[in-house]
Structure formats: structure tokens, C-alpha cells
Amino acid sequence: MTIIEFTDLDDLDKVTAIMQYGHLIAQHAEENSRVFFYRVEGFYVSATYSLPNDQLTGICCFQEDNQEQLHFHKKLTAIHPAERNYSTPDA
To answer: What is the CA radius of gyration of the chain?
Structure first.
């Protein structure tokens, strides 16, 4: 999937693409929100989730992790690959 194909998707399909192709790299938690940072093939995606509203409030994609969101990168908490939780569908 390319960044152009991703940007053409609606929000539900973007979430599906993130779950299918994305690799969680980092996250940032604040009092009322959580931001997840993914690598999706050749580009990056940040997804913002509102805790009080229990809903996704934004999805932003960009080509390089330092181009558009330098302020965001400073707040990230890196996730070591061994700490990632993977779930497999029940057979």
C-alpha cells in the first residue's frame, strides 16, 4: 500500500489498513487522549484516540517520521518489540 492509496481511504478503511499493514512503533498518553504511531509499509501514520469520548479523533499520515510532526516525535514513548502484544484469531 502506498501513502496515496492510504489517503484515498475512508476512516474505517484506514483503521483496517493500519491493523493489517501497520507496525506499532510508539505511543504517547495524555490525560484525555492517546496517540499511536505506526509504520505502514513505506510511510508513517499517527492515530489519535480520545479517552473520554471513546473514539478515534484523527488519523494523519506522512512520508518520514520527522517531516511534519517534530513536536510529536519528542513526546513518543518507544515500544520495544518484545513488549508488543500480538493477538491471533481463534481457530
So the answer is: 13
Residue 8 located in a structural domain:
yes
**Short-list 39, 37, 24, 19, CA closest to 89:** 19
Q: What is the mean pLDDT of the chain?
A: 78
**What band does 54 get if pLDDT is binned at 50, 70 and 90?**
confident
Cβ neighbors of 27 (< 8 A, separation 6 or more) are 34, 35, 36, 37, 76, 77, 79
Quote the domain boundaries for residue 16: 3-79
Is 73 within a domain? yes
Residue 72 lies in a domain: yes
